[in-house]
Structures are given as C-alpha cells and as structure tokens.
Design a protein that fits this description.
There is one protein chain. By secondary structure, the protein is α/β, with parallel strands linked by helices. It has two domains: 2-159 and 295-348, Medium-chain alcohol dehydrogenases, catalytic domain (Quinone Oxidoreductase, Chain A, domain 1), CATH 3.90.180; 161-291, Rossmann fold, CATH 3.40.50.720. Helix content is 25%, strand content 26%. Strands 3, 4, 5, 8, 9, 16 and 17 form a seven-stranded mixed β-sheet that branches. A six-stranded parallel β-sheet has the order 12-11-10-13-14-15, with helices on one face. A two-stranded antiparallel ribbon has the order 1-2. Strand 11, helix 6 (212-218) and strand 12 (222-225) form a beta-alpha-beta unit. The chain is globular and about 60 Å long. It binds NADP nicotinamide-adenine-dinucleotide phosphate and zinc ion. Residues 41-43, 46, 159, 163, 183-188, 206-208, 211, 245-248, 250, 268-270, 292-294, 331, 334, 336 line the site of NADP nicotinamide-adenine-dinucleotide phosphate.
Length: 349
Amino acid sequence: MTQVKAYAAHQADQPLGPFDLERRNPGPLDVEIEILYCGVCHSDIHTARNEWGGTMYPIVPGHEIVGKVTAIGAQVTKHNLGDTVGIGCFVDSCGYCHNCKEDLEQYCENGHSQTYNSFLQDKKTITYGGYSTHIVVTEKFVLRVPDKLPLEAVAPLLCAGITTYSPLKHWNVKKGDKVAVVGLGGLGHMAVKIAAAMGADVTMLSRSPEKAKDADALGAHHFELTTDSENMKKMTGRFDLIIDTVSAQHDYNAYLHLLKTDGTMVLLGVPPEMEQIHAGSLIFGRKSLVGSLVGGIKETQEMLDFCAEHGIVSDVEVISMDQINVAYERTIAGDVHYRFVIDMASLKN
Ligand code: NAP
Ligand code: ZN
C-alpha cells in the first residue's frame, strides 16, 4: 500500500479538503498511473453532495483522468512505463456476463466498479477517484491516449466525450440528421463538437443567451433559447435526435414536442428530482425517450481515436486543486467554459 495525496468531501454540506489515501501496490495485471489532469464532471458534484443518495464518505471524486504509467504488473501487456493513458468512469467489471462480453461493461449484469463511490469486484473495497496524485487500475480499464492532443483538454473526453459519443453512434447519427443538444456545459459542448464532426445539423438548446456565440464557435449550426415559449413552439417536430445533458429538473415533455415522428430523445443528465412524463408526449408521433450511460472500454478507445482524427478536445479552464470548491459553485451556476480541469501538479507540491 502506498499513501497518496487526494482531495475528499467528508460530508454533503462541507467543502472538499486535503485527504490522504491508500492505493494498493500494483498486482500482476495492474497499471499504476501518476495523474496529470482530472476533469470536473457534474456527477462529481451530485455525488460529493449526496444529491442522488448513497454517497460513502469520505469520497474522492474524479473520473476524467489522464496521466503517465509509473509501474506495471508482471503480466501487463497493453501498457508500458511512461505511456500516456486515461481512466474514465469505471475501473472494473465482472468480465463474463453477457454485457461484458459484448463490450458493454458499463451495463455489467453483476455490477461494474465505478471509479469512485463504488466497490471493486471483491464487493468490499471502496473506490476513490482522480482528485489524487496516483491511481492503480487493472490494465483492461486503462485507455491509450493519443499523444498529439493537449492532455489537459483530453481528460474530459474520458467522461463527457464518451457519454455523448456513445448515444450519437448508437442512434446512428449521420450526415444531415437534425440533432439538438440541450444544455451547454461539459457534456453539451462535447455533444456539439462530436455531432458536428459526424456531419449532423446541430442545434444548441440553451437557457443562457450569452452562450450563443460560444455554441457557434463549438460548431453548432443553430442556437435556440429554451426560455422563450414562442421560440419552443416554432421548433415543434424539427429534430431526429435530442441529446439532453441538463443536470437539474426541467420539463421533458416540452422537448419531446420538438421531435419528428419516430424521433428519439436521449437522457444523459441525471437531475436528482423525478420528472413527470405525459404518455401523449410519446404516443403522438411514436417517439422514444431513452437513456444512455457513458460507453464501454472498446468504444471509449474508438472515441479517443475519433477525436484524435478530427482534432476534437474539450474547451477547458485549468484550475489548481484548492480551487475546486469555487469550481463546483461556478459549475452549478452554469458559469463553466466548458470544463474545469484540475492540474494535479498543484496537489503534489
Ligand atoms: P454541466 O457542465 O453543469 O452542464 C449542465 C448544463 O445544463 C448547464 O451548463 C446548463 O446549460 C444546463 N442547466 C443546468 N441547470 C439548469 C436548469 N436549472 N435548468 C435548465 N438547464 C440547466 O454538467 P455536465 O458535467 O455536463 O453533466 C450534466 C449531467 O449529466 C449531470 O446531471 C451529470 O451527472 C450527468 N452525467 C451523466 C452521464 C451518463 O453516463 N449518462 C455521464 C456524465 C454526466 P445552459 O446554460 O446552456 O442551459
Ligand atoms: Zn462524468
């Protein structure tokens, strides 16, 4: 066991602060990683503040990790010392259920091990995330990161990137499809970039008029305000696919009306509150309301390679570890452009 420096939340209503963490020594199939950068996902905030219930304190969030390999176990074949690698939202799964065999580890029937606030496959060791100097992960769940992209801007691809890439692929987005993205934050800005790279006609749906210029720079073809009901009415029946990334309660029915017949709305955001759906919102127009959870390891590697090929990274604001509590407040206020990323060197010093 090695002690490493980390930042943890000890209680739902307390700011995060320094915390010393034990990481296991690398086993035969393990990779030890020195963390260089870790993105700040809204899921970190929901979990640190126990907004979904079930948070096990102290919790070390962080599942958008990029770093360098500092040690490998004797049987590791995928990675070498010094490689640049990434870790996303999960660090293990059973490996033998139907979904694991189909490269859908995120839907492991025996429960996948999330990067933090979860259990390893022994079902008793608690996982701690990327707000720390080092992490040890079994090699299958360690991604190769293309060296030619700026690493601080690659980190958010490990969650925000794959979470948006996976449904765009699964629902077969192609050239000319009318795709709407709801909420311009971490996930939303990646959805815009990736959907545009896939050739879709992309509309940004936002409650924040000041983000219109940014949406355009990110590659959105249209920007529409969701706070104006006349404007919403005007878009009735317009979209093939809606990607909803909103982190707080909002009326799904209002967005379902914007779908074409047979259109699909994908929920990615996980507001803590329950939302009511009217059956009529789906029945009229044979519409689908679906959800999607990150993406499997194979697909995450495919997404990283796709982003390298298209020169896609996240737009980031790099912070030091001790700025994390301010970053949380700014994220909740929608004041993020468009992902905070922690420079982990600030924790080492
Ligand atoms: P984020 O950066 O905070 O972005 C969320 C965006 O939602 C905001 O920028 C804002 O965009 C909009 N929004 C926020 N509050 C709102 C409100 N009260 N009413 C209407 N719009 C509001 O968050 P994120 O990191 O992208 O994460 C978004 C959600 O996805 C979170 O709930 C997170 O837990 C979840 N998530 C899910 C998965 C998955 O696998 N499904 C993976 C990662 C994250 P505008 O200002 O443009 O309206
Ligand atoms: Zn995330």
